[in-house]
Amino acid sequence: MVENLLLTDAKIFGGSGWNEPSWSDSLLLMDGRIAAVGETETVRNICNDAREIDLKGMLVLPGLCDAHLHMSVGGRSLQILDLDGRNKEEIIRELTVLCDSDNASRKQWVEAFNWEMWRAELDASTLEKIFPARMVVVYTRDLHSLCCSTTALARAGINADTPDPPGGVIVRDAEGIPTGVLKESAADMIHDLSSPSTEEDIERSILAAQDYLVSLGLTAVSEVLDRDVEPVYRKLDAENRLKIDVDAWLRIDNWDGSSSPPDNGNRFYINTLKVFLDGALGSFTASMQEPYSNAPDKSGVLFYTDNQLLEALQSAVKAGWKLAIHAIGDRSVEQICRILKQIPKQGSTPHRIEHLQILPEDGIRLVVESKAVASVQPVHLVDDQHWLPERIGRQRCRRTSVWRSLFEAGVPVAIGSDWPVASADPCLNIHAAINRSKFGEQPHEYFDIGEGLPPYLAVRAATYGWAYAAGLSEHRGAIERDLSADLTILSAVSDDLQDWSKAKVEMTISRGEIIYS
Q1: What letter does residue 322 receive in the DSSP assignment?
Q2: pLDDT tens track for 328-342
Q3: Which terminus of the chain, N or C, has less C-beta within 10 A?
Q4: 92 and 39 in a common domain
């Protein structure tokens, strides 16, 4: 039984939908739901047995949500070497230290992630020198590519005669010998071999991720299911060990082609298929209408023809699935907008386009006509702006991450992080959505500051936006009577909600239960 709580002396972000907030100072939670919002004496008189918590002026938001992350993978990433921001010399030094550690010596595969290709070049021979006769894999920041050691290439059977798989690239030197860098589906040739996880490993990763995410104030996420994790989620849900709502997506490649979505659990739901149309900007695999500015021989990878995509998506929607479609480059965005116009939405919930980083010239109109939710990751821009201008040029930068224009044209916006590809901190993500920069920085001049969201809309996109996109806005996503009592309580956010650089999560409440304090 969840105790009743009376929160007083608070700055409560009330109201619903996309509206500007209505402010009040007290909130009553009963039986896991919001029982009353208003002034203290009025709310206090409704219930005599609620535990009162004086919040001393703290900000109370609807429970913050992340509309796109990789929870089980993120939990695993907490346990492996993070190469964020490292140059080649630093990567070699940290891998060498790892090589000498007892922990690495006991593992068949040695793994690291967050390698940034633009910052440091790696190849199989470099990794082989550090770890002779060992399987080593270093994942890029975007998880779309990797570099592996010579021994790992041999274990996967990859050599000069191995053809590129559909939708993938085996990078080769001038003589046609694989360099160890594998992109998109080619990376799966290594990923499918490395570090097979037991059920206990997966459970440990999910719970570690959950602990981390609730400490950041998150109460719900959209999770791209990795292999073998669905049964573990269902077990944790049945045992009431999930403390946040998980809107899970099955990859369309793992769907049997005919089955309908399974029944919802208590906190775990699967009714969405994830579809990849292209790759990522960091790997030159995001599909572009024109070649990359600093790589004129590359314009990315488009995984489907129109006919293939239309057939696949029509079958999915006919079976009752919603769609979450990964489209980063302007060519893939144009393709999915064109295709979605021919596909009905599933029930009352629209399909969603993930990332939408670079729009084609007439992209706003195309996205409006697609009737999709724009599921975007503002935190990507704060990293991308350091290297993306050289890659796509000034004109395409002006069509990048145009969140405000999309919303003002009538497109619903949900924001996520893509963790562990980027930081899962929702305060950083909201700050980036507003200011188009990370804490203490200014946006690059090529990226229009006018495309930042107004502060209240950034909060709505991180709360109601998730609920709307997940089809749960009748149950949660706002601070209103009878909705689920999901709340994030913060201190040190500026009064105008513009600056989140000093924000601190004081409490996370999920269905009326304090899950972090």
Answers
A1: E
A2: 999 999 999 999 999
A3: N
A4: no
